[in-house]
Automatic annotation (TrEMBL):
Stated family: Belongs to the PhoH family.
Start and end residues of each PIN domain: 7-148
GO cellular component entries: cytosol
Protein name as it appears in the record: Phosphate starvation protein PhoH
Species whose genome carries this gene: Hydrogenovibrio marinus
Pfam name, any one: PhoH
InterPro entries associated with the record: P-loop_NTPase (IPR027417), PhoH (IPR003714), PhoH2-like (IPR051451), PIN_dom (IPR002716)
Keywords on record: ATP-binding, Nucleotide-binding
Gene Ontology molecular function, alphabetical: ATP binding
Length: 468
């Protein structure tokens, strides 16, 4: 390690547990793996959780890098470039991977016990800092407390930033935009309009510098009430479709009417068979689950577009066994699905007035609504299903990809979540799988996203949300 220009990054175990490809995400800079990290990877390789799978993938990558290398070559550092998946690209030059081939000792603060694994990593980092004062030695860890201890001990540390979808969660695509007050009046003469299958369409020139996306909602709050969905943008011309109004009780969905513009936009996408993926993001009480379930019931029981509704959610800890308690998979998941039961009660309260009618309705719903665990989704294919994934903010981008790729022909997936309530220890608003998929799908014409902001649960819940 004689290069004084390249930085030296020490990777903590949790970074590789979170993203095995982190080895290739530090460009031309070098990476150092302490022996303690290898020990912790070895301890975490068993099991069926996502973390265990990531550990095994990391071990395979390291094995490929170190394969057929002599001890002297390992001491000099091994090139990461030779197994990099994008090594044929123009910007593929990578640094080297170094291992702790000899004891690296430095004096730790007396307040830090030396027998802890994290403190061994800190000790290695401080020793490297003394050996290479000009290299910019940095500890990369997703553990906040580890970063605090590292700073207190005098070692520079950083979070793992490569998995961030956005710099700030406030930059996340909301799925809708409020039009200027006089937008319709100014552009009406330039618009081309026509009717097709009882829908009204418009064409408007937007130029090459437009900031609209497919299935983005354009809402007007003036007297004209012009609200539309961007269906297509081609050669600087946008095709808009007039939005259906579900705020009118005559056009309800399974007895549910939209209470505000945001819910109306969500229902437009939830009942649209041309939209394969819908993500609804919002705080508690905005109606995400109720709207999704109402749309699912109408399209499954009334219209027959889907043959079954599948409800699931991210249980924390995700991927671990759901237990050896007696009962089926559905019975074990029931305690996690309180939101489903609460909303079913709202949706079925008008479906029959006698006890017999209510029991018959409930029995019918139980046959068409299935509760599944995420733990057993891998390898499955769902055909003609309406899948509702609740608490999606607790999924990593890799877990989200695993689930969405389960969709077969005729299946619609609806992801619900609140990025302000993340329970997973190493996910943030900018790294969660929900943020990831919203950002990656915003240009796809068969996906739609709406951020719900206005609470509709009750005046008590709204006041508590604003003031507590």
């Amino acid at each position: 390690m004689t290069d004084a220009v390249k930085r030296l990054f020490i990777l903590d175990t949790n970074v590789l547990m979170h993203d095995p490809m982190a080895l290739f995400n530090f460009e031309e800079h070098d990476i150092f793996l302490p022996m303690t990290v290898l020990e912790e990877l070895d301890a975490g390789k068993k099991g069926m959780s996502e973390v265990s799978r990531n550990v095994r993938e990391t071990n395979r990558l390291i094995d490929q890098i170190i394969s057929n290398a002599t001890f002297e070559e390992i001491k000099q550092g091994l090139d990461l470039e030779r197994i990099h998946p994008n090594k044929d690209s123009d910007n593929s030059y990578l640094g080297k991977l170094f291992f702790e081939t000899e004891p690296l000792l430095a004096e730790l603060p007396k307040s830090l016990p030396s027998h802890k694994a994290d403190n061994h990593i800190l000790q290695t980092g401080l020793a490297l800092k003394e050996m290479y004062p000009n290299r910019g030695v940095t500890l990369v860890t997703k553990d906040i407390n580890m970063r605090i201890k590292s700073s207190a001990a005098g070692l520079h540390s950083e979070d793992y930033y490569n998995d961030r979808v956005l710099e700030d969660a406030d930059l996340l695509f909301t799925g809708w935009e409020i039009l200027p007050e006089n937008f319709f009046e100014e552009n009406f003469s330039k618009m081309k309009s026509w009717q097709e299958n009882n829908n009204t369409f418009y064409e408007i020139e937007v130029g090459d510098n437009h900031h609209w996306y497919p299935n983005q909602c354009l809402v007007s709050e003036n007297e004209s009430g012009f609200s539309a969905i961007v269906r297509n943008i081609h050669n600087g011309v946008a095709t808009l479709e007039y939005m259906h109004n579900f705020e009118n009780n005559k056009h309800n969905v399974w007895g549910i009417s939209a209470r505000n513009h945001e819910q109306n936009m969500a229902l437009n996408f939830l009942i649209d068979p041309n939209i394969d993926f819908v993500s609804l993001l919002g705080v508690a009480g905005t109606g995400k689950t109720l709207l999704a379930l109402a749309a699912a019931l109408q399209q499954t029981l009334d219209e027959g577009i889907y043959n079954e509704i599948i409800m699931t959610r991210a249980t924390i800890p995700i991927g671990d066994d759901i237990g050896f308690l007696p009962g089926t998979e559905e019975e074990k998941m029931t305690p996690w699905m309180g939101a489903l039961m609460d909303n079913l009660e709202v949706l079925t309260k008008s479906e029959g007035h006698t006890d017999w009618e209510k029991e018959t309705t409930q029995e019918l719903l139980n046959k068409r609504i299935k509760i599944k665990s995420l733990n057993f989704m891998r390898g499955r294919t769902f055909q003609n299903k309406f899948i509702i994934l609740d608490e999606a903010q607790n999924l990593t981008p890799k877990q989200m990809k695993t689930l969405v790729t389960r969709a077969g022909e005729g299946t619609k997936i609806v992801c619900l979540g609140n990025i302000g309530q993340i329970d997973s220890p190493y996910l943030t608003e900018t790294t969660t799988g929900l943020t990831y998929i919203v950002d990656r799908f915003k240009n796809w014409p068969h996906a739609a996203h709406i951020t719900l902001k206005q609470g509709e649960r009750s005046r008590l819940a709204e006041f508590a949300s604003d003031n507590l």
